[in-house]
Amino acid sequence: ELQRLQKEADDLHSKTHDNTLTTSLTHLHSRYQELLNSCKGYIDKISQRMEQVISEQSAYEEAFVSARTWVTNTSEKLNACEIYSGQKEDITDRVELCQEISDNLEHGQSLVDKASECGFQTIKSCNVESAGRVRQNLERLKTDWNEVTRRVDKIGNKLNKMVAKWSHYNSTIEKLLKWLVDAEKILDTCT
Predict the structure, then answer these.
(1) CA 87-88-90 angle, 5° bins
(2) Alpha-carbon gap, residue 155 to 78, rounded angstroms
């Protein structure tokens, strides 16, 4: 459009030799270039912001999936620990697994914290509906995390009580066997 206007102005200038057209056209062209440069600047800023938003959303999704996977896997391991019957060795193995989970809780906490941090960054830049979903996902993650930590304590305590019962039972059996052996020796000497 600007080129067509330039051609018409050149035609008029050649016929009338009026410099007003050239000055007006130069001024118009200058304003057009300023507007074009401003638009390019805004587009660059918007593009950078969009890249930042996409990066934040990707970081959130990655952090959330890591935390969710850790919580889910840990919950499944705890399910295997919730069997309180069996041989002492089996229960001891479950105690060790529960202790391993307990030792890893700090790592799980850091994953949940990172997901929350990234989620709150994402909430700032997304629409209301998406922000609601992110909040809901984070709330569910925190609820599940709290449940995992509660279960670790509860299961660990119950398993330790079962190991203590087995130890008491074994100790009692050993005392009884010793008493029987001693009683047999006394009876043997009496006969």
Answers:
(1) 65
(2) 8
Enter the tokens of residue 41.
């600047």
Cα–Cα distance for residue pair 145/151, rounded to 1 Å: 10
Burial of 119 by CB count in 10 Å (0-12 exposed, 13-18 middle, 19+ buried)?
Answer: buried
d(CA 154, CA 84): 12
Instruction: Indicate the pTM of the whole model.
Output: 0.72
**What three-state secondary structure class fits 150?**
helix
Task: Give the integer Cα–Cα distance in Å for 8 and 31.
Answer: 19
Residue-wise pLDDT for 10-43, tens only, equals: 676 666 666 776 677 677 778 888 988 999 999 9
User: In the numeric block, which tokens belong to residue 56?
Assistant: 């934040």
Q: Count other C-beta atoms under 10 Å from residue 165's C-beta.
A: 13
In DSSP notation, 5-73 reads HHHHHHHHHHHH--HHHHHHHHHHHHHHHHHHHHHHHHHHHHHHHHHHHHHHHHHHHHHHHHHHHHHHH
User: Residue 85: left (phi > 0), alpha (psi -120 to 50), or beta?
Assistant: beta
